[in-house]
Amino acid sequence: MSTTLELILLLFLIIIALAVTFTKDLLMAVLIFSVYSFVLVIIWEHLGAPDVALIEAVAGVGITTIFFILAITHTGRREE
Questions:
Q1: What CA dihedral angle connects 41, 13, 32 and 22, to 10 degrees?
Q2: Mind listing the pLDDT tens digit for each residue in 26-72?
Q3: What stretches of the chain show up as alpha helix (H) in DSSP?
Q4: Close Cβ partners of 76 (under 8 Å, ≥ 6 residues apart)
Q5: Which long-range contacts (CB under 8 A, 24 or more apart) does 33-39 make?
Q6: Could you state, in order of their start, the residue ranges of all structural domains in the chain?
Q7: Which of 22, 35, 38, 45 is least enclosed, having the fewest CB within 10 Å?
Q8: Chain mean position to CA 27
Q9: The whole model's pTM is what?
């Protein structure tokens, strides 16, 4: 069961990474990237590293997403 869950989460990470790569809307890319970080939080917690999961939640999901959204508001939302 544990191996199956890990494989599903890793496959989901690959799909999310591809979605971020191919999207043209920068705000959507940031939101998808925050989902990627959230899935990483779940993986780290599942692997028994709650300290790493907490740092990923704060840095990856929280601060990075906020900074990216602020940068997008000062530039354009669409990639040219």
A1: 160
A2: 999 999 999 999 999 999 999 999 999 999 999 988 899 999 999 99
A3: 2-22, 26-46, 50-55, 64-74
A4: 26
A5: 33/64, 33/65, 33/68, 34/60, 34/61, 34/64, 34/65, 36/60, 37/61, 37/64, 37/65, 39/9, 39/12, 39/13
A6: 2-74
A7: 22
A8: 13
A9: 0.84
